[in-house]
Amino acid sequence: MSLKNKLHILKRKYRSKKMAPAFNALHTFLYLPNETTHNGTHIKAADDLKRTMNTVIMAMVPCLLFGMFNAGYQHHLALGEIQSVTGGFFSAEFWTLDNFMVGFWKIIPLVIVSYGVGLLIEFIFAIINKHEVEEGYLVTGMLVPLIVPIDIPLWMLAVAVVFGVVIGKEVFGGTGMNILNPALTIRAFLFFAYPTWMSGDKVWVHGAVERDQAIAAGQNLDAISGETILGVLAQGKEVAYSAADMFLGFIPGSVGETSTLLIILGGLFLVFSKIGSWRIMLSSVIGAIVMGLIFNQVVASGWITESSNFYGLMSAPFWEHLLIGGFAFGTVFMATDPVTASQTNKGKWIYGFLVGFISIMIRVFNPAYPEGVMLAILLMNVFAPTIDHYVVQGNVKKRMKRVKVKTA
Fold first, then answer.
1. Sign of the alpha-carbon dihedral angle for 161, 222, 329, 62
2. Among 84-93, 131-140, 315-324, which is the least confidently predicted range?
């Protein structure tokens, strides 16, 4: 008897039992549902929630694989075992199995814990509330390992996932009802609960200075902590990476946020598959550019001196803000979340512009936490319904004026 038939028998046996949602979830995850609608339907389409989630995951897989290579590359580079491959996206020294394996064994536990804990919570709530298990966490489970530091303790990640799924989604009614992006809720919890592991001295991002100091002290370290580009700029230091490095992804940072090139390709894939909103992506970039240009103008006018805490990030070229940190990744994969983002077309333009504008503002004005896209998206998640409300009311008023003119 095939596995599919065995699962179908178990599903029928436990149909009226408490564990029915768990069997249904396992069965529909592996195979297409056996149930079909018997009455007429208004709309017939090939896309459903599971296909949508799987499409988003496919768009993120290149970022995950590249992140594994880059983690190993940064590891060996910091230890002085290889030379920098500046701009060498096709360099054989980068695409080695050693680089990949170091990153793989560091990152795959994050993926396992993220999916294991998150889906367990989903199953528990489905059983308690007696409803079907939704596929919404499939994307969240992939997003989380891509936006956290590579060496975050697994127990911290597990606690954060429990908090994010329960408080960020289930208390609102589950998939489709949440007002905050669950993945960003998890990251926000980690940042405020364990700040040293998110942006402090415990982050495994490597640095040549720390490497030299460790070697001089005779220490034999497996990994070396250092600063991301945002951290360097926040301290007013000069960035040692070229524009090509930042665009291609040969820089320290969270797993999925380094390669702007692959993020753009993933965004195009989502746009052409009609899952991601190009309006939100484009308006976020415009908002970030506008804020960056304003800061550059402030620096050029002489209002801010080099002794200011804001000078480093404020003087960075406006286009550089698009390549560093998590701005690109957040814009493509999290700001476009169809549940928490604005729903109207005009609202998407306003929502996206404010996400980009506020991201760069927080990045510059908070040197202790130079990455602002997380807080910007969460803030706009809260205001998205308000934006849509006023957009709809504006359309209603325009139509009422048309009616009055025609009846006058």
1. negative
2. 84-93
